[in-house]
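Justification of resources, computational component.

The compute hours requested in this renewal are based largely on the per-chain cost of generating structure records like the one below. Each record pairs the submitted sequence with a full structure-token output. That output is archived, and it is also reused by downstream analysis tasks.
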Amino acid sequence: MLKRMTALITLSLLLAACVAPTPVPTPTPTGPLTVTIFHTNDMHGYLEGQKIRGGDGVEFEFGGVGNAMGTIVRLKQEAPGPTLLFDTGDLWVGTFASNRDQGKTIFAAMNAMKYDAMTLGNHDFDQGVAVVQARAGEAKFPILIANIVEASSGQVPAWAKAYIVKEIGGVRFGIVGVSYTRTPGISSKVKELQAFKFVDELEALKQILPEVKSKSDLIVVLSHAGFDADQRIAAALPEINVIVGGHTHTELRNPKVIGSTIIVQAGSRAQNVGRLDLTIDRASKKITDYSKSNVLFASVSNKAQTPKEIAEMMTKLIADGRAATQKVIGETAIDLTRAYTADGRSTGEYPSGNLVVDAMLWANQAGDAPADLAIHNNAGIRADIPKGSITYGQLFEMLPFDNVLVAMDLKGEHIKAVLEVAVSCPRANTLVAGMSFTYNCALPSGNRVSNILIRGKPMEPQKVYRVQTIDYLATGGDGQAAFKEGKNLIYGDPVIDVVAAYVAKTSPVNPKVEGRIVEVK
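The structure output for this chain reads:
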């Protein structure tokens, strides 16, 4: 009986199989493909945005990483097809909480958002290569740097890639990254970066694009070279379809098109999310249309749909940072301000700068080899502090880079060479203590500086002076090769800690502008 039942069941199954409908194959899409590129750049660790009150009286936040991530979530829901998500560097260095966290939380948020790739900015190296490598190891997306290679091997470091290829809807996107080629000359970690060669962005792309092109239908470049450089790259390499830019904090509300290359950039501080819709012909694999206007979307809290996980990350990091930054360390009797050239760059002598170099000189006075003078670059002072209490957070905003003191022996002739480089007329990109000088922009470069006094006495070219500076300059940053002539170098404390100690010791501080740097005509 059991055998007969089994035979009947088997026969029934065979008959059912004979009459089962044949599966209908999924039709191949024939219409155009729309791919949306979302992008961020130069977020600089701005975890929270600026408080703004709308016309309805309701307060909201403009900018901030959490709001940018929530804006991306909202925009992705509106996208007509598949999406790509990129960042072009200068990601976490810039605010106290983010610097203290070394970018861990922002990378965790980007992982949660499923970024597809990023390139590095110059400030991403400010906390050292080891930090970059650690973040790259945590990232669930590739770091693309085609123009940064190891000096020893000539290869892109193992923690990064030159490019990737992603296929979307049958179209292959070759995605290449280039960082800022002048990074070793402006980074606060110049010595570490000597282990790498930063190839000119355009030259690196010329070398790698034939390989990328052989594997791709469309080419996207993630660039931290700056808007002007991006335009030069587009003019020289028309095979590039899209350049997603960074570095210059340019808000391109409408794409810039050079030939057939589309250039976009989204400003800074996570205030905007860029969105570029590309319409692609599936047969030819060519772009037939793109978003021609209104490609930036403000990151505002009242419209963002920030995932709970990311919101909690940001809230905790902001709270931890705020607790540390609100500590009052002293007072200032005056507004600690900066001076500016007509084009908006800080220059010459001013109260906040004098405070910093005075603190540097003071820090070394108790040492075995007291310094004769102190020199700091003007561009390293990044914020003003109003009259009243000074918190550690305010000092950090003024001195956001992780520079440390370096004492060295330097001949007078080399000190003059340093000053000549610093005087890039009409700007004087230097701050000094223990010395004074004049400069004349009517004279040729290299002969503009005169009347150099050190401790009130004329500088002697062959005399050796003890100079207190910062590691960024000591290793040749800002083009200051003469500092490399220094002898008997001693590395000291972080500049911000020295200034904090000086403020606590001498409060209320009252740094005067006293004619240390004078332009003559």
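The longest helix spans residues 2-19. Residues 1-9, 13-20 have pLDDT under 50 and may be disordered.
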